Amino acid sequence: MRPDPLNPDNAGLAGSANDSLQPYWMPFTANRLFKSKPRMFVAAEGMHYVTDDGRRILDAMAGLWCVNAGHNPPRIVRAIQEQAARLDFVSSFQMGHPLAFQLAERIAELAPAGLDRVFFTNSGSEAVDTALKIARAYHKVRGDANRIKLIGRAKAYHGMGFGGLSVAGIPRHRRDFGPLLGDVDHLPHTHDLTHNAFSRGQPAWGAHLADELEAIVQIHDASTIAAVIVEPVTGSGGVLPPPVGYLERLRELCTRYGILLIFDEVISGFGRLGAPFGSTALGVTPDLITCAKGMTNGAVPMGGVIASSAVYDAFMAAPEAAVELMHGYTYSGHPLACAAGLAAIDTYEQEGLFARGPQISATWEAAVHQLKGAPHVRDIRNIGVLAAIELTPREGAPGARAAEAVEHCFAAGVLVRVAGDNLVLSPPLTISPDQMTQVVETIDAALRTVA
User: Fold this and answer.
1) Which of 47, 80, 303, 348 meets the CB 3.0–4.6 Å disulfide criterion with 127?
2) Do you know which PANTHER family this protein is assigned to (predicted)?
């Protein structure tokens, strides 16, 4: 009989309260505070985590934007187990295994038309750095080596590699690690409460902000710019949907000036916006897509860059025996990750999760906008199965009110993410209407508790 993964009394699922917590230097964590009062998870299934004290926590963040099919889908678990027993590892440097080629083919079939070459990485951060390197190298192999400048956007998150950090636009993430890459500039973000507060889906105002690329071209000259990278929907910067016409305008300008357009779809890929990729849902095709997170449903670390045939073919002019792109990672195309990725796509397709986004997005939108008028709420934004509730910051303590609200939600059994003054929501696509109600009611109660 299969053990119940939600029963914390199962052997091997007990918390590590008696173990030393000190050796682990935790990422993006106040380590001393956490270790004085640790928050431990010991199991997960479907929409819920289980803590070491036996509490069930509704996961309104899909882990970290990634568990789109819910936790521990049997098909993915089984695929990883079987692959681990068959082939644990083989390098992708001058070698291969069948699953890597199969997964690349499946991803190419899901991607927008013309994007049909897949380079595997191990994370979204590596995918972004890879895409930026591909962009620069693309222009160089075409004899246009002056194109080295990279254009990001304010409020953007592109991982924590030096390339992604350089084009990103969240100041606190960048502050401690400079100097970063040179030859980088940034577009303005599209967040404006005067025009876009409480918008539903894509806001009507803001397409003109894409024209700021024209100003950057005037300063730097288009012949020096390799690529523009944006998230179709800004994620960690506060869930900012693109204004109607904004991405279309960026595409038009990049095409006009010979600049590659990169969409960072680490969050928006694999069903989050109601299609396999956000670019398809939003009707704009870039030259490169970065992906990760939902690629394996979060089960095994994996990322990738999906390139257009035109980009790929530019590298293939080299002699046949030459390494066309001098780049890669030890674990690129790892067998366990490929098995998880194939099983994840099977799960999304066979359980109808790519189609479920559009089916539940109206219900999701109606649910989260019920918080309009709740204490401290100054904006609500949503698109697909994403949302952010922006709070008025406490004077002299930005982010503190939102952080306290998140703690109240956790105590009440709902996991919500904080991003500055935003409560960010990105639940598994399997969320039910009743669970949506639970999330919203829990947030409402938390907001009525915090000062």
Assistant:
1) 303
2) ADENOSYLMETHIONINE-8-AMINO-7-OXONONANOATE AMINOTRANSFERASE (PTHR42684), BETA-ALANINE--PYRUVATE AMINOTRANSFERASE (PTHR42684:SF1)
Q: Are 381 and 241 in contact (CB under 8 A)?
A: yes
SS3 364: helix
Two tokens, residue 233: 């929907």
**Are 125 and 278 in contact, with CB atoms under 8 Å apart?**
no
pLDDT, position 354: 95
Residue 352 has pLDDT above 70, yes or no: yes
Among 348, 344, 340, 349, CA closest to 83: 340
CA-nearest of 332, 304, 343 to 82 is 343
How many Å apart are CA 179 and CA 160, to the nearest integer?
A: 14
pLDDT in the model for residue 19: 65
Give CA–CA dist 427/425, Å, rounded.
6
Token pair 């998230």 in the structure block, residue? 231
Give, in degrees to the nearest 5, the angle at Cα 75 between 2 and 424.
100
pLDDT (average), residues 358-379: 97
CB 229 within 8 A of CB 131: yes
Mean pLDDT, rounded, for 317-323: 93
pTM for the full predicted model: 0.95
**3-state secondary structure at position 58:** strand
Where residue 448 falls (left for φ over 0; alpha for ψ -120 to 50; beta otherwise) is: alpha
**Integer Rg of the chain from CA:** 22
Please report the domains of the chain, with CATH numbers, ordered by start residue. Answer: 31-69+352-447 (3.90.1150.10), 77-350 (3.40.640.10)
Q: Which residues pair with 379 in a beta bridge?
A: 390
Q: How far is CA 266 from CA 73, 128, 151, 333, 441, in A?
A: 20, 9, 18, 17, 29
User: Is the pLDDT reported for residue 385 higher than 60?
Assistant: yes
Strand, helix or coil for residue 172: helix
How far apart, in Å, are the Cα atoms of 140 and each of 136, 145, 226, 229, 258? 6, 4, 10, 18, 13
Tokens for 4, please give them. Answer: 């119940």
Tokens at residue 372, please? Answer: 């309009």
Q: What is the pLDDT of residues 217-257, one digit of tens each?
A: 999 999 999 999 999 999 999 999 999 999 999 999 999 99
End-to-end CA distance of the chain: 49
Number of other residues whose CB lies within 10 A of the CB of residue 7: 12
